[in-house]
Design brief:
CATH topology: TIM Barrel
CATH class: Alpha Beta
Oligomer: single chain
Structural class: alpha/beta
Order of helices and strands: EEEHEHEHEHEHEHEHHHHEHHH
Shape: globular
Number of helices: 13
Number of strands: 10
Distance between the termini: 29 Å
Strand order of the largest sheet: 9-8-7-6-5-4-3-10
Helix content: 40-55%
CATH architecture: Alpha-Beta Barrel
């Protein structure tokens, strides 16, 4: 396992981050119903991940149902007594309660949500506390002050953001640093061979400002595992079979070109397509750790080799070419002049 600094902080995290969205069995009222792991299986995955050197885990209060993923992790901490070996990240922002204040990122709600997460996780602090999406109804100064106070109180160690627009991220960093308050150490964003949009604005910000990128959905909902092929129905029991609308959105010529290139590189390296897709991200500027989910031990084992998988420049270039996307204006204009991307 390889390790990198968490953004510009001094904390070391594994280049693979265990995503725990599927931990716990949600009931029929949850969108995660039928695609989660039992607590027993989740425990096995956490045991094996830590044994393999994956010391960075990510969750969120909304994962599962009523904080289900956090509760499963909390039960594991209570059972295994290995809390200090894990760099723990969680998130808040989306609805967890009734009424107008049951959602959002107000100071009032941030303070309440962090206490709720600490209780479910059965821990005294959260190593990385992330705002799950910007809240345009709340001034960023209010968010910055709340997070800074939580660091001072010892409830969180670092702050991060997720699903932020580039302008809002830069505004937050400016406000944090000019007032001497805690700035975002990381940004958790959708990033994969299939979805490269953050390369326009977010990646340059990350490199310039020392914000670590934590890609989520690095396998594009399973598209980049190699088990989905053009002209074939999703395999029985797969998530794409359950979420057919998502599969239909990925059923595009560009995506199948990516899959073909990915499978070709995987065959060259005698590795799985999913491991190659994760490794490609680890070769990208600004990336600290790639978040991958594992519902089973088999899925975990298939992804672990990505941490040590070295791609050649030619292989990275082939994957870049297959996944090329429309930069749009003014990025295409700038690229033609300076080749910035």
């Amino acid at each position: 396992m390889q390790y990198r600094n968490l953004g510009s902080t001094g904390t070391k995290v594994s280049t693979l981050c265990l995503g725990t969205m599927t931990f716990g069995e949600a009931d029929e009222n949850s969108f995660m119903h039928g695609v989660g792991s039992t607590e027993e299986t989740s425990f096995q995955v956490m045991d094996r991940a830590l044994e393999a050197g994956v010391n960075f885990w990510d969750t969120a209060d909304v994962y599962g149902q009523d904080g289900l993923s956090e509760r499963v992790i909390g039960n594991w901490f209570a059972s295994r007594k290995r809390r200090d070996e894990v760099v723990l990240a969680t998130k808040m922002r989306f609805r967890m309660g009734q009424g107008p204040n049951g959602t959002g990122a107000s100071r009032r709600r941030i303070v309440r949500c962090v206490d709720d997460s600490l209780r479910r996780l059965q821990t005294d602090r959260i190593d990385l506390y992330q705002i799950h999406m910007q809240d345009i109804d709340v001034p960023e100064e209010e968010v910055v002050r709340a997070l800074d106070d939580l660091v001072t109180a010892g409830k969180i160690v670092y702050a991060g953001c997720s699903n932020y627009a580039a302008y809002r991220l830069m505004d937050s960093l400016w406000k944090s640093r000019t007032t001497g308050r805690t700035a975002y150490a990381t940004m958790q964003m959708q990033y994969s061979l299939a979805v490269r949009d953050i390369e326009r604005e977010h990646v340059p910000i990350a490199v310039q400002e020392g914000v670590g990128i934590l890609p989520w959905s690095p396998l594009a909902g399973g598209l980049l595992t190699g088990k989905y092929r053009e002209g074939q129905a999703p395999p029985a029991g797969s998530r794409m079979e359950k979420w057919r609308a998502r599969y239909d959105r990925f059923d595009q010529p560009r995506n199948w070109r990516i899959v073909e290139a990915l499978v070709a590189v995987a065959e060259e390296l005698e590795a799985s397509p999913s491991a190659v897709a994760l490794a490609w991200l680890l070769h990208k500027p600004g990336v600290t750790s790639v978040i991958f989910g594992a519902r089973t031990l088999e899925q975990l084992e298939a992804n672990l080799p990505a941490a040590d998988l070295a791609l050649t420049d030619a292989q990275v270039a082939a994957l870049d070419a297959a996944s090329a996307y429309d930069l749009g204006y003014p990025y295409e204009f700038m690229h033609q002049v300076q080749k910035a991307w």
